Amino acid sequence: MSQLVRAHNIVVSSDGYAAGEGQSLERPFGHADPQVMMAWAGATASWPNRTDPGGSQGLDDYLVREFHRNIGAEIMGRNKFGPQRGPWTDHEWQGWWGDEPPFHTPVFVMTHHERPSFTLGDTTFHFVSGSPAEVLEPALAAADGKDVRLGGGAQSLRQFLDAGLVDTLHVAVSPVELGGGSRLWSSPEELLDRYHRDVVPSPSGAVVHHLFWRR
Fold this sequence. Notes:
Layout: E1 5-12, E2 17-19, H1 34-37, H2 39-42, H3 59-66, E3 71-77, H4 78-81, E4 107-110, E5 118-120, E6 123-128, H5 132-143, E7 147-150, H6 154-162, E8 168-173, E9 182-183, E10 195-201, E11 208-214
Parallel strand pairs: 1-7, 1-8, 3-4, 3-7, 4-6
Antiparallel strand pairs: 2-9, 5-6, 8-11, 10-11
């Protein structure tokens, strides 16, 4: 089976924003509240940060598990890695995830300002510049036959969508309205010339899942 380029568990507001305004070290999602937007995932039995037994089963739980299935590498935008802009001034800071990042694969961070790679736990971060196709090439090689996940944020994901490089896409639309920030779309209908789509409400009622695959 050929490798796929997948974007999974991308959560956006009802007006299409994946993150709010005013991103900072203390607020990775700006004025958006990730606990509200990701509540559907955090309630599942398979949520990796769950500290108590239980949790919901069904579609939401399946989609949380699917996030890690057959993933060999991730590509993320620089603003998902951190809030810094412009040339790097502090190589000591190594992201929001602590000593054991949740990715467990090579991660390729898209940036105009490259810096040396480093490893935390079983995740190695590489900082690469170039077009989406140029960034995808080493990620596919590093994935070693498995799929490549596009982790966001919205701007980098949109670049891959516009370049025609995304095979499947899962977006959970939250009823929250943000009014500004980093926007994935004005409407999901923008993608229907290139993708089939199924729309499935979450059993929790917290979000509506939009599942896209290439035409």
